[in-house]
Amino acid sequence: MLAELTRRLLSTAIVVLGVVVLVFLLIHLIPRDPVDVMLGESASAADREALRQNLGLDRPLGVQLGEYLGGLARGELGHSLHHRRPIVELLAERIPATLELALAALAFTLVLALPLGLLAAVRRNTGWDRGAMAFSLLGVSIPNFWLGPLLILLFSVWLGWLPVSGRESPGALILPALTLGMSLAAVLSRMVRSSVLEVLGEDFIRSAYARGLSTRQVLTRHALPNALLPVITVLGLQLGTLLAGAVITEVVFGWPGLGSLTIEAIQSRDYPLVQVCVLLISLSYVLVNMLTDLLYAWIDPRIRLGESDAG
């Protein structure tokens, strides 16, 4: 297990390094000078050159990349060009909001997807099954940038039940969480249905019924625990999508999180802030996938035995 963890950490470090370099190069190759954004096009050439030297943008791209990687290795994230503040302070203000939104969306996903998928599997080829699969197809097909405004029109503008945007009101979290978790709930409910149907055909399920166990006992004690292994894998892979989707959702609802901060940084050509935001999103995606693989190997001993035999 320790060797597997070391291998995963090494591959994660390589992926993150590649993401850092790629984002650094892309953001510096995009047209429009951030100095012009900060000073305006009416600023004199001398003022623009002085600011460019002060920010270190006049140095060769390779030198800037080396200094940036060295700063990351020392734990120095730098200062925002637009906000004129340490990036650590900006992240400390925005990350809690994104975590709150992601956890709420994940809770909504699990509460909806697990019962819905289980019901569809138990009531196979009935109206419940067809309704659940129709919801799954609809949830996957509707993008966040369309579902968000639709929910705002329905629950905020027409019914007046929930706030349109912001984070101040107690109910402000509901619509963003629904928007962000809907597609994941649709994918997960379909996976739960498929996994439970596969498990229900196994011999140990028939043996459980033969011992006189009720349908509820068979489902909760035998079918669902064994069906959760592939569900955990899909959930881990989709969590990265959840974090990426938070960017769109936060912009739609004016949610003051990491996603909206990323868009603000891109619009203002704030090089250091864009790089750190994208680095955090990609790092969270890679770490979640790594933890999912390790959790899967810990839950299912057959994977560990297969790796040992292969070695």
Automatic annotation (TrEMBL):
GO terms for molecular function: nickel cation transmembrane transporter activity. Its main location: membrane. One of its GO terms (cellular component) is plasma membrane. Residues 95-292 form the ABC transmembrane type-1 domain. The chain crosses the membrane at residues 9-30, 101-122, 134-159, 171-188, 227-253, 273-299. It comes from the Bacteria. InterPro entries: BPD_transp_1_N, MetI-like, MetI-like_sf, Opp2B. Pfam families: BPD_transp_1 (PF00528), BPD_transp_1_N (PF19300). Signal peptide: none annotated. It is a multi-pass membrane protein. It is found in: Cell membrane. Keywords: Cell membrane, Ion transport, Membrane, Nickel, Nickel transport, Transmembrane, Transmembrane helix, Transport. Belongs to the binding-protein-dependent transport system permease family. OppBC subfamily. This is ABC transporter permease. The lineage of its organism: Bacteria, Pseudomonadati, Pseudomonadota, Gammaproteobacteria, Thiohalobacterales.
